[in-house]
Amino acid sequence: MIKLDPNRTYPHETESRTIVRFQDCDPLQHLNNAKYLDYYFNAREDQVATQYNFSPLQLFREYKTSWVVYQHQIAYVRPAMVSEWIRIVSRIIYYDEDTMITEYYMTDDSRRQLKNVLWMTSKYVSVVTGKRIPHHPEVMAFLDAISMKNIDFHNLNFNDRIRQIKEQLAQEGSEGVND
Q: Does the entry feature the keyword Hydrolase, yes or no (predicted)?
């Protein structure tokens, strides 16, 4: 069962740090385009386990449901390089009755250089029937507790979002210089 602590405020954005592995790079020493998804999915799995005490296995066992990837939208802004330390940020930017959109972005270790942005759309499905179903009330409450509240997804363009993230990183970088 998904258990939310009513006395706790959950982070709406999670972040982790990792290194780009040689085995995941192309001959130019760039992270292979397909490997970005692996890095994002692995980071998110770790992030939700540590920040929310949640595992997708809980959905499978308790509700006989899962989220399945329906669509990706990805932008390769700058390459992540072999042996480079990177930061991966993830957050839920939209959800409704049966859909969840997770935004991921990757930066250099100092959070100054945007490398990649991904929007992943997932659908909530019954693992028994393989068909899309509405989120259970506990799942909706969980999504409400962890999702970003200040993003107007329906009026958001992917390329505009990339610019917003770049501006946010630049602002955070300039604030760090003045501290």
A: yes
